[in-house]
Amino acid sequence: WRIDIEGEYEQPLTVQWAGQLPFLRARLESKGWQPAVPLSGSRLLLWLDPRRTAMQLPLLPHVHDGRYETLAMFHPVADAPDKRLVLRLWPTEVELRSPRLPIWIGTVALETIARPMSWINLPRDSEDFNTPRQILRQSLDDLPMRQVARSAPPEPDKEDVEWDKNVLLIHQPEPIH
Fold first, then answer.
1. Which pLDDT score is estimated for 137?
2. Which residue(s) pair with 113 in the sheet?
3. CA 113, CA 71: separation in Å to the nearest integer?
4. Fewest Cβ atoms nearer than 10 Å: which of 32, 86, 153, 154?
């Protein structure tokens, strides 16, 4: 589970990437994913413009284990301007030995922009973490990967979360010599 700044469990970590981030970023961009618009002082005001689509809004940062995400990417949802898929990856202290590749952990979620008042946008993650993971899998189907079940006990306050305890393990291919 992603552990937020207050030490609470938030979303399940459903993705592991073994490889370099520029490689993954380029591969995802070739499949229609876009780098997330980072948050800044002036971009924060976009959250007060209800005319903005989900893809036009900056990403509100998430913390896992005391760190902000290192890679964040968006993917549009067809015919749903108020929705976007959000992939976030955080570093780990682990790396593969041969070849030496860092391992990143993350989550992919469907984010919906709610407008409870006429002057503000609020992001809400779907409770379904299986479908977004499968969409990411389809986007990267040409890379070595497998899906494995993890034993993660359900958190008491996360009973509404739809997660089958599967994690997508994706690996950067070794270069051909």
1. 96
2. 123
3. 21
4. 153
